Amino acid sequence: MKGTLSASVSGANAFSDFARAWQARLGDTFAPAPLDRTTVAGFSARSRAFRVRDVMFNRFENAAALRTAGRRVGVDDHVRLWIVRRGTWRFGEPGGIEHTVPAGRLLVQSGKLSHFSAAPRSTAQVLVLPAAEIPRRRSAPASGPADTAEVRVLTAHATTVSRMLDGLRPAGVDAARDTLAELARAAVAGGFDDEEPLLSPALAQAARDLADQRLTDPSLSPAALARKLNVSARTLQRAFAHEGQSLSAYIRERRLDEARRALITPHRHMTITEIAAHWQFADSGHFARAFRKRYGQTPTDCAATAARKTSSHVDRQPVARDFDR
At residue 126, what are phi and psi to the nearest 5 degrees? Predict the structure, then answer.
């Protein structure tokens, strides 16, 4: 079984509309928790969720304060990984124990869905999977950092699955589900089997995400990204071998894309040499050769063409005339 939900709701009937859509797309196994009256009255949230077999992932953003009615729902044979991205979430356990989880933290929780609350404008991701997938989990919740390489790879894979799930055939659904479980074990254990071939797409996506954030960093390299992701350089190379493009080629093309964007920006303040240096090309000659190979023209010609188009557009603007004279 598979299903996806993408919803953004607010207004008087927001929660009932959300609950109906959730049940229709994701089923009763992962039923949403009942909310207290105040929360229901002011419910305003965005959710992007999917179910793949017996695993569910949801990214949830609440505009107003959120609080459950206290009743536990779901099944005992579940483990939840809560990844708090913004704001603060609080989780209650039987006996009155409450766990506060701020942004940047991961909480692992077993059993039924317990009482929880969230501050306004909070964001969390939650992965729910069978307890058997996380061996030897103790019953008490455990918290840890959410910025580890394993958690980044997990959420990158989940994002990819949410985009592609509707088009997956049964074998692809099985692979997506099994990889989520493998990465969940990695996130809890603090490491993963870097020989696992199912991890390659998620690992490659995590590397691309990190590279995109550091394109102007002179120390950016496949080796640096491998260290950041806690895998060997060879493992990362193998992940990109399945993609048909090396990680070095990806970094070079992304830098060229950004350099071209800077070149054609109207009224730019940097010279071509400065743009080349900013996007970490060793010299203008190297930049020009790489640029021409990718775009079929030199950086100078590209900038000149953009300038002519801008000038032509300005010249064609209607001229205001004073008809009263």
Answer: -135, 130
pLDDT over 80 (residue 23)? yes
Read off the pLDDT of residues 271-284 as tens digits, 9 standing for 90 and up. Answer: 999 999 999 998 88
Distance CA 4, CA 52 (A): 9
**Residue-wise pLDDT tens digits, 87-141:** 999 888 766 667 888 898 888 888 877 788 999 999 999 999 998 898 755 556 7
Instruction: Please identify which residue in the block is written with the tokens 């929660």.
Output: 15
Cα-based distances in Å from 308 to 100, 230, 257, 270, 301? 58, 48, 20, 18, 11
List phi, psi (to 5°) of 106: -115, 130
How far apart CA 66 and CA 75 sit, in angstroms, is 22
**79-104 core/surface letters (b: 16 or more CB in 10 A; e: else):** bbbbbbbebebebbbeeeeebebebe
Instruction: Please give the Cα distance from 152 to 178 (Å, whole number).
Output: 17
Calpha distance 3→47 (Å, rounded): 14
Q: Distance between CA 70 and CA 114 in Å, rounded?
A: 7
- Same structural domain for residues 1 and 58? yes
Distance CA 314, CA 317 (A): 5
Contact 33, 24 (CB under 8 A): no
Looking up residue 30, the CATH number of its domain turns out to be 2.60.120.10
Domain range for 294 is: 249-310
Lay out the sheet containing 98-102: strands in order across.
66-67, 116-118, 88-92, 98-102
Q: Given the structure tokens 């790879």, which residue do they identify?
A: 153
Cα 246–Cα 248–Cα 251 angle in degrees, nearest 5: 115
